[in-house]
Amino acid sequence: MLYEDLETAIKAREAKVSVLGQGYIGLPTSLLIARAGFTVYGFDVNEELIRDLSKGSTKLEEEKGIPELLRDLKGRNYFPTNDLDDLYGSDVVLIAVPTPKGRNGPDLGMLISALETALGVVRRGGLVVIESTLPPRAFQDLILPLVESRGMRVGTDIYLAYCPERALPGKLIQELTQNFRIIGAADERSGRLAKILYESFVEGNIEIVDPLTAEMVKLVENSFRDVNIAFANEIARMCETLGVDVRRVRELANKHPRVNMLIPGIGVGGSCLTKDPWFLYWISRERGYTPNLIRESRRINSGMPYHYAEVLDELVRRLRGGRGTIAVLGLTYKGDVPDPRESPVEPLVKELVKRGHTVRTYDPLIDSSFGGERISDFLEAVRGADVLAFTADHSEFKMLDLKKLRRAVGKDGPVILFDGRLLFDPEEAEEAGFLYISVGRPYSILDNSLVTIKD
Ligand SMILES: NC(=O)c1ccc[n+]([C@@H]2O[C@H](COP(=O)([O-])OP(=O)(O)OC[C@H]3O[C@@H](n4cnc5c(N)ncnc54)[C@H](O)[C@@H]3O)[C@@H](O)[C@H]2O)c1
To answer: For residue 320, with 0-12 CB atoms within 10 Å meaning exposed, 13-18 middle and 19 or more buried, which class applies?
Structure first.
């Protein structure tokens, strides 16, 4: 196929597009490209997922706009499939399969396998775009050599680009259409073709750069977030030890015109923030520079849920002289985001269960329980509990009337409200009759002999 023909087909939205991987990123991207007018084949190796999509049902039911788009476009110009025959002769293939972290480095097994599939089904002179997160230099050192080893010359036989995805679950359609996009292009023509494709559904700016810059930008964005959260978390841990409330410290420090400290919490989760900093760390270390700040930030953030499991365990034992009942409220890694992946609440729950407590879990958005006892009714989850541990900042929690909540718990004796996301006003919680404990506050408020738990 001539370059000009492909450019014309993409501009006219007549190109046949296949998207490999129909998860959090691949499905909404397929639907948006289909909505723009292209014929899109959504391929996944997970047969059950394809069966569900073919019936119009998706695990992203809580994602605004996705169920509606699926039902509207399925069978019209969006076709979920696990049959490779449907993909042959694609003009464009997008890859959105997982690139998880392995034990000591990125695990690119699924990406390589999807790339092999893409090279097998794309027509000669077609475009392949990788959306899956790549570690730095993977495009140059792994992807290009693999493509060339198949006898394809990049820039003539095939066009190739890396367009890292940075959308947030919970706001996928909004972010996929409105975020600024980066295209890391193998050559000028690949960049131009990818840009025309993305312009069909992206309203934000699109910038074409070299692949290594695109790899770095994606990873730097998430590492920036992780390091800044780690700073807030470290200050919170310090405040607990030194006997001062982080809430007040942050509020006043942030009045400085050049300070913007984030809100500390029980940890960091999600599929990207827990992985991307490690991609940077591993590859940079391999090539001779060890990024200590990035590694330490990861360690601080991933240590937070274990620290609070220890705090809660200690408090319950002091309060009850043994094990207790802990209601863990909010299981997702972020408020109002229906995504349980890599949630810091998971190790917190598991640790409390391991220590022998009865752990009830409640989340309005997901049905995971992380090894606790899942309770679907909020009032049932809190009734009679020794501790209410708020671990996700869902809007529904922020609206709670704490006096009514204390009555709903309904037991005599002390009840701990553990505020893992700084949702409540301490005085209001105490007036409502709770023993208020939070991230970044000394625990000695419970009992003067109780000091901060050490590492
Ligand atoms: N979810 C996010 O918030 C997010 C944000 C930005 C970037 N990313 C990146 O996007 C990529 C995809 O992530 P996701 O969250 O959509 O993953 P996901 O797990 O939700 O979906 C990936 C899908 O790919 C399928 N798959 C695996 N191997 C395949 C193959 N060889 N051929 C076809 N399908 C295959 C899986 O069955 C799965 O359904 C990852 O690299 C991730 O780091 C994700």
So the answer is: middle
* CATH number of domain containing 345: 3.40.50.720
Looking at the structure, tell me whether residues 223 and 179 fall in a common domain.
no
Tokens of 308: 């609070």
Residues with CB under 6 A from ligand 1: 20-26, 43-46, 49, 96-99, 110, 113-114, 117, 131-133, 165-167, 169, 271-272
> Does 120 share its domain with 193?
yes
Out of 116, 165, 215, mutate this one to test ligand 1's pocket (max ligand atoms within 8 Å of CB): namely: 165
In a domain, 214, yes or no: no
**Per-residue pLDDT tens listing for the chain (455 residues):** 788 899 999 999 999 999 999 999 999 999 999 999 999 999 999 999 999 999 999 999 888 999 999 999 999 999 999 999 999 999 999 999 999 999 899 999 999 999 999 999 999 999 999 999 999 999 999 999 999 999 999 999 999 999 999 898 889 999 999 999 999 999 999 999 999 999 999 999 999 999 999 999 999 999 999 999 999 999 999 999 999 999 999 999 999 999 999 999 999 999 899 999 999 999 999 999 999 999 999 999 999 999 999 999 999 998 888 999 999 999 999 999 988 999 999 999 999 999 999 999 999 999 999 999 999 999 999 999 999 999 999 999 999 999 999 999 998 889 999 999 999 999 999 999 999 999 999 876 455 444 344 44
C-alpha separations of 141 from 137, 146, 212 in Å? 6, 9, 10
> Which residue from 176, 187, 182 is spatially nearest to 208, judged by alpha carbons?
182
Asked if 218 is an active-site residue, the reply is yes
Domain boundary among 209, 244, 275: 209
Question: Does 420 lie in the same domain as 333?
Answer: yes
Residue 114 maps to a domain: yes
What letter represents residue 449's amino acid? S
